[in-house]
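Ticket 4471: requesting a sanity check on a complex prediction with sodium ion. Repro inputs:
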Amino acid sequence: RRKVTVQTIMGMKGKQRVVMVTAYDYPTARLVDQAGIDGILVGDSLGMVVLGFESTLRVALRDMLIHVAAVARAKPKALLIADMPFMTYETGIRDALRNASRLIRAGAEAVKPEGGQEIFDIVNNLVKFGIPVMGHIGLNPQRVLSLGGFKMIGRTEEQAKKLMEDAKALQEAGAFAIVIEMTPASVAKAVTESVKIPTICIGAGPHCDGQILVIHDVLGLTERPPSFAKKYVDLASIIRDAVAKYVSEVRNGEFPSAEYYKD
Ligand code: KIV
Ligand code: NA
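Returned structure tokens:
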């Protein structure tokens, strides 16, 4: 398999669906890469699915750096994208460049800040100085407090129009792809048809150029998964059963049996 670059992803629009998934550690990155994924996102969903926080607002750059470095050590053929945490880019171009470059030095090949027109200058400067950017519009979890919850975006005509403008702004700023999260499928379809760069959807229907899911949702490790996520395996039960078996085998003297030790 050849190394996936941002050019590879851009070239897939209209030809082949782009498939991405999150990963936060070395073994998971190896496995999803071996499964043939196109892009691995070290998402700030890290905060919720791995670190146990209620939202992504608590994730710090140093948390992301540790997990990006771990994923990078798997040397994936997939493109490695890192989320920019809350308030590591909104505060200005200098901060955005400095913080994005730290993610790049940790092994990321692209970064993902949240927002549309309001981050045009930030995205434009990152791209101008060599840092590929994937946009993220629709539901922006980093804005959960002002949104009043994790809600669908784009139901009103005004919101749908804004989504279209945000996508065009990100394309204009130089983004190589755009994540569209939790919008009506019809809105995601219209956005997809109006830009030349691939759209990668999550909870936004089938009409995008690609899909992305959180790996813990795919594997059945999330306590309260979002309704749009498909669980492909119930790893929670598999893990619980395996550990319960280990517990009982140690307690009843079955483990370690002869093959697991030497006299
Ligand atoms: O943090 C994350 O996992 C994400 C994806 C859901 C797109 O931003
Ligand atoms: Na995110």
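Notes from triage: The mean pLDDT is 98. Leaving this open until the requester confirms.
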